[in-house]
Design goal:
Oligomer: single chain
Shape: globular
CATH topology: outer membrane lipoprotein receptor (LolB), chain A
Largest sheet: 12 strands, mixed
CATH class: Mainly Beta
CATH superfamily: Lipoprotein localisation LolA/LolB/LppX
Radius of gyration: 17 Å
Order of helices and strands: HHEEEEEEHHEEEEEE
CATH architecture: Clam
Strand content: 35-45%
């Protein structure tokens, strides 16, 4: 019998939004992740947005470990989750939640696969159908400012912060905030339409390095239910 498919914390939209973000530089980041929730307010004057727009323009591949923390509108924290992801532009990524549960999202050739091992279930859908989140601009080659209103909101906690608002108003998120350090993207904060907030922090960052293309090839394991979502 087909069991109900569960997407924890609105993962598809969030993962698609994150999947293309990395570092402005082409270096690796060996520091450990900082598990604090970065403040949203800015503590210094705003600067221009070129560090972020140039990052998006030059991005080819990005790999990182991540820690994700969600806080709902009442201030209640969900258990943190962590894992690893790999992105290759255009249009390919591998995003794996490893703790406290296992879930994999793989995008390639216009198809998004979501594999939930504890349900023995896979959902297959057209990647284009999931672009209500801030996804297309990062997986494709469209200039950032064509899809988003981009502004600098200053420096806080050692990071330079930028705000993105979807020009089409189709996003699942009211706002995406991106924090950058000297090595590039360090943190992202997503605020959805219900004012729930999700912070994602990155470590072990590597940008524009060779990646394993086999990660983007997915064949559903034998015995799992496959749901075609159209």
């Amino acid at each position: 019998m087909l069991r109900p498919f569960k997407l924890r914390y609105g993962l598809v939209g969030l993962v698609l939004a994150i999947g293309a973000l990395g570092s402005v530089t082409h270096a690796s980041d060996k520091q450990s992740v900082d598990t604090q929730t970065f403040p949203l307010g800015a503590s210094s004057a705003a600067a221009d947005v070129r560090p972020l727009t140039e990052f998006v323009r030059t991005l080819k591949t990005f790999t990182a470990d991540f820690v994700q923390q969600q806080v709902n509108v009442r201030g209640q924290k969900q258990p943190a989750s962590s894992g690893h992801f790999v992105l290759a532009r255009p249009g390919r990524f591998f995003w794996a939640y490893e703790k406290p549960y296992v879930q994999k999202l793989i995008a390639n050739e216009g198809v998004l696969w979501v594999y939930d091992p504890d349900l023995a279930q896979v959902t297959k859908s057209p990647l284009a159908d999931n672009r209500g989140a801030p996804i297309g601009i990062f997986l494709g080659n469209q200039p950032l400012q064509e899809a988003f209103e981009v502004s600098s909101i200053g420096k806080n906690d050692g990071l330079d912060w930028y705000s993105l608002k979807d020009r089409s108003a189709k996003s699942d998120f009211n706002q995406v905030q991106i924090g950058m350090d000297a090595k590039g993207i360090k943190a992202m904060v997503f605020t959805d339409k219900l004012d729930n907030r999700t912070t994602v922090q990155f470590s072990q960052r590597e940008v524009n390095q060779k990646v394993d293309d086999s990660l983007f090839q997915f064949v559903p394991p034998k015995g799992v239910d496959v749901v075609n979502s159209r």
